[in-house]
From TrEMBL:
Chain intervals with Basic and acidic residues compositional bias: 1-15
InterPro entries, alphabetized: CE4 (IPR052740), Glyco_hydro/deAcase_b/a-brl (IPR011330)
Coiled coil regions, renumbered to chain: none
GO BP annotations, alphabetical order: carbohydrate metabolic process
Region (Disordered): 1-31
Protein name listed in UniProt: NodB homology domain-containing protein
């Protein structure tokens, strides 16, 4: 019952729901059937808990960011998912501000395994034309420490300013280069592990909300623009970007 209540509360507040498996176990040995049970099964559970139609739950992330090759991506295509967000790429040297982060890309052409695009084993080798990849881009502290996700760089004693400066530093790498979407990827435990992270995140989001050319959107909303881009003056023409409140 608690799962349903928590997930529905998040959905009712406008958060996008995705599938992250039913058991959150290491998928290295999963078969195609396992991928289907794990990803489609969680999709069904979320749909029941929230009342959101299954075909509106369109994104997923593999447990521990461990890709499943053709077993994973063939299931996603067959089940009508829109995107995966498990590939870790688009890193680069923090001291080279001209290294562009990676934009989302389609899997019409299989990605070449590399540090820039798919920095792990079992990258898909076939074409999946209807699927998108929203890669997790490596993030850095101002001193050059790297982390896979937003919640991996700062220590317990980080101040609010430390959190804001870290987020700003990584946001600017996107904003001042090729404007690839900047994704804040974190686990809820970050707010316990780094006590000032919540206040710092709120301040950072307030700060960037003052920019006329920056939007805080879900991954599906972002892909709605990537697939059908319009000038920012016409952003309200994107149906999913219209605010109901």
């Amino acid at each position: 019952m608690m799962f349903r209540e928590q997930v529905k509360t998040l959905a009712d507040k406008g958060n996008e729901m995705g599938s992250h498996s039913q058991t959150h176990s290491a998928p290295a040995a999963w078969s195609r059937q396992d991928w289907d049970i794990q990803m489609q099964g969680m999709r069904q559970r979320v749909a029941v808990a929230t009342g959101i139609p299954q075909d509106k739950i369109v994104g997923m992330r593999a447990p521990f960011l461990q890709l499943g090759g053709e077993e994973q991506f063939s299931v996603l295509q067959e089940r009508g998912f829109l995107y995966d967000s498990s590939m870790f790429g688009g890193g680069g040297n923090v001291h080279n501000t001209h290294t562009p982060p990676l934009w989302p890309f389609t899997l019409h052409f299989p990605p070449t395994p590399s540090r820039q695009v798919c920095d792990q084993e079992r990258c898909p080798q076939r074409s999946y034309p209807r699927l998108w990849e929203v890669p997790i881009t490596e993030q850095f502290t101002s001193t050059g420490r790297a982390c896979t996700m937003t919640d991996g760089c700062l220590g317990h004693d980080a101040s609010v300013d430390d959190v804001v400066n870290f987020l700003r530093h990584n946001f600017n790498r996107h904003y001042l280069n090729n404007k690839a979407p900047f994704m804040i990827s974190l686990h809820a435990t970050w707010f316990d592990d780094v006590p000032n992270s919540y206040a710092g995140l709120k301040e950072f989001l307030r700060e960037i909300s003052l920019r006329r050319d920056v939007w805080q959107v879900t991954l599906t909303q972002m892909l709605d623009w990537v697939r059908h881009p319009v000038p920012f003056s016409r952003a309200n023409e994107i149906p999913s970007w219209r605010c109901s409140k």
